[in-house]
Amino acid sequence: MKIVIAPDSFKESLSALEVADEIAAAFALHLPDAQFVKVPVADGGEGTVQSMVDATGGQIIHKTVTGPMGKPVNAHYGILGADSSFGENTAVIEMAAASGLHHVRAGERNPLLSSTHGTGELICDALDRGIRHIILGLGGSATNDAGAGMIQALGYRLLDSEGRELAPGGASLATLQCIDASGRHPALSECSFDVACDVDNPLCGERGASAIFGPQKGATQAMVQQLDAALAHFADTAIAQGFSDASQEAGAGAAGGMGFGVMTFLQGQLRPGVDIVMQAVGLAEKVAGADLVITGEGRIDGQTVFGKTPMGVLRVARQHQVPVIGIAGCLGDGAEKMLEQGMSAIFDIIPAASDLQQALANAKPNLHRAASNVAAVWCLGKRGC
Q1: Taking a C-beta distance cutoff of 8 angstroms, is the pair 316, 284 a contact?
Q2: Which CATH architecture has domain 48-273?
Q3: pLDDT per residue over 133-146, tens digit each?
Q4: Region 2-41+284-382: CATH code
Q5: Of all residues in the chain, what percent carry a pLDDT higher than 90?
Q6: In the predicted model, is pLDDT for residue 172 greater than 90?
Q7: What are the structural domain ranges in the chain?
Q8: Which of 6, 97, 294, 362 has its CA 20 to 30 A from that of 343?
Q9: Do residues 304 and 338 touch, judged by C-beta distance below 8 A?
Q10: What's the CA gap between 285 and 2, in Å, rounded?
């Protein structure tokens, strides 16, 4: 019997690999002769790097880079291993690792000044190591500069009317006169970018980066208007200099306009994060011939069907007509939508009323207990396990 275990992490308690290990151990008590294929996965958000590195036998690279407000921060990215369907020449970078909101204290957040420079430094480091395919996860950023800082770190020069380099941050883009690409990193012409993005906002306007995402990064209404105008000027200048017009493309406004930056200057292809991850870890090949797939995450609810990890795993398993069971830290409103999509059953792991701190602290034994019970029921259904 072949059982594929492909969970996301249980946030703040267990990594995706730890979840897979615990489920496999619990099932092995009832099915000692089964083949367990553990595939830690993610949906392109927090934890994606670790999950993909664990799934492919890759490595984590640590590097000190420029944080969103100009101070040094400790960041990391992953280089995928031999088990990746993309090969060993692929890096996976979460922009939040270098440019994330968590790097800036609440009182210090200022999207007029915050920069994606550190994300560009991570990309540059990967290129210098010979990487020629980069998976870039958007989201969780403290920035609203449309990737300007990123491309500056990669050798682009953004100049004002007097030929001076622009200061960091989205606000300074209002004074942009010229984009000089002559010094850009030479390896960019050889590198392809898959960009994990799960929003469809354009760069500017009522649904744009500044209006929708700016306030959570500390922008006042006046700042939103200032930033929106600055980003529009950035796009207009890029178009005038022969760069493609990506400002209205779905996802251009993601992560403070980072979607625009990677499409315009790196020719990045935006795709749902879960699709990129499933392809990278070769989930379809591993599910083929399986008797059961088990997936899960910290919470399964009505939003799970919109591109979260369990839904991505379910889509792959359905193609191979393999039943799927979901195990979650908790079930929220609308969790039954996963059953409507074809998941065979869903379970939570909390055995009794508890507060969040207790639930997180006891996640490992609770998961083991729940998975063991699921395995016992599965065996009853198989008659004779």
Answers
A1: yes
A2: Alpha-Beta Complex (3.90)
A3: 999 999 889 999 99
A4: 3.40.50.10350
A5: 88
A6: yes
A7: 2-41+284-382, 48-273
A8: 362
A9: yes
A10: 13
